[in-house]
Model the fold of this input.
Amino acid sequence: MSARPLEGRLVVLGVTGSIAAYKAAELVRALVAAGAEVQPAMTHSASRFLGPLTLETLTRHRVQLDPLELLADSRIGHIVAADTADVVVVAPATARWMAAMAGGLADDVVTAICLATAAPVVVAPAMDGGMWSHPATRANAERLRGYGYAIVEPEEGPLASGASGRGRLAETAAIVAAVEAAVTGRPVRAPDAALRPPLEPERRGADLEGRRIVVSAGGTAEPIDPVRFIGNRSSGRMGAAVAEAALDRGAVVVLVAGTVSVPLPERAEVRHAETAAAMREVVLAALADADALVMAAAVADFRPQRAAEEKLTRRAGLTLELEPTEDILAEAAALAHERLRPRPVLVGFAAETGSLDRAVEKAARKRVDLLVANDVAEEGSGFGGDTNRVTIVVPGSAPERWPLLSKREVADRLLDRVAALLDARDASRQTGQATRSMRATEESRA
Ligand SMILES: Cc1cc2nc3c(=O)[nH]c(=O)nc-3n(C[C@H](O)[C@H](O)[C@H](O)COP(=O)(O)O)c2cc1C
Done:
């Protein structure tokens, strides 16, 4: 048997209001050790026995506490859990919960998930001996078996009341074994992470401590006259997420903000630059002492050739002569490659609609280390929203498509790459310096 028999599986763990709820933390650890991703759900009573924060920290999933909850992306929490679970395990299961489930009463989130799911269900009851032997509970257990649920029988031993009897939650190993048996031979139901309940971003350490990162965010506004401009739909959310994530990882962040409609992190050094020309100036100046540049801003490609000095009045028609703006990323790359040592890491963004061919060509032409391409016409991607589905283009490698992620998670994964590139850059500089000083010593001896 494999050491990680639950690898790739989503286990939904329902916890109900028993004194044994604290053992759910140990069960999560065992399930995770067996390879599972675990989505916890708790009844309100359970959350009085065990803090949801404990399960959230262990699983990186928000605990579902109520059937009325929506996920951050507006999907219905218990339905997403039900539809994507490979197995639902309710441990510990109270007498009340078993009765609710036997009757199909979906007024707590754990029952709602079990009712809605097509996945196998494993139930591990825990209660006082009298409660377990009561004919009502016996009948409810039988009904659950009738639904095809696997019951992991409680054990004999000391109970919460101080008395001894049958009602103690089964050992963790027995529950994990039942979960593994329930999924054996079944295909993974939702291998695409985008369909599952979203994972909270992994906490990164201070791996960008001492780094200076320039991030551009938002759109640009190219003036037509003193009150009108040509703009775009960029909100600045992606750039702000990159800045926030870099700050959390210890970097000093210079945030070059174009037109933005989201709050900007206060800890960043914010420099406003609302036109392509202003942004070029600010970005190139900031690049001189930067370790990395992340150009997340959507800079206009064209601007009116001449902005009118006075407000234009209404007339039959207006023809604007447009001229191309500066290509800031290309200029930054030229400066970085030709003049800056050590060379800053360069990350570009490309908003495309449809094919990614242009992005692949653009990454090579612009001499960036990484290009983040997203199809802004695709649902869940692009301007304004909280999520993004991007493809990472590294010149010379096959494009890498990431699942639908929160913009913060995209930012963190991107910064993982930036941190690795910076570490590699510094390591090769040190080797280069050591080689040079060895040569110098040998030459002086010669
Ligand atoms: C200290 C304490 C321990 C409890 N332990 C259990 C238990 O192990 N099993 C059980 O069925 N009920 C137990 N109960 C009663 C349940 O918490 C109660 O029936 C509650 O309504 C269950 O809610 P839930 O099924 O929605 O989680 C306990 C109550 C207290 C105060």
